[in-house]
Known about the structure:
Low-confidence stretches: none
Mean pLDDT: 88
Structural class: alpha+beta
Number of strands: 4
Number of domains: 1
Oligomer: single chain
Amino acid sequence: MIEVLVTLFVLSVGILAGAAMQMKSLKNTQESLFRSQAVNLANTIVESMRANPEAVVLGYYDNISTTNVFNSTGCLTTGCSPENIATEDIIQWQSLLAPANGSIPVLPPMNNDEPAEATISGNTDGVRTVTVHWQVAIDGDVKDKTYSLDVRL
């Protein structure tokens, strides 16, 4: 009889450990997804900047935040200047964080229900820093997460 109780105890501990491991795996998978989305978001604007080098040189991508409001130039069908292309790139970049059409954003909203934030800062020796900032709830606690990419253009 004691052997059966010991066996059940060992089996229960094993099952609980397996369940805990599964929960940790799910949490890490979600964090990995968000970090991958942040990397993709940063790379998206960097590729847009590489495709529009004149606007980069003229500073149209400098000191940008997705929390700022940008108005579409409507030039995509009529032809755009480098400044207009930069503005349209930034608007499209913003729409990934805060879609206007009801789509799901690529990163979760901040704790205050504002969209996740992304910035382009600096122009020191041609190096710009693209930073993506979002928040996630981990074990009932809200944690700030940041991904930064330094790029020389």
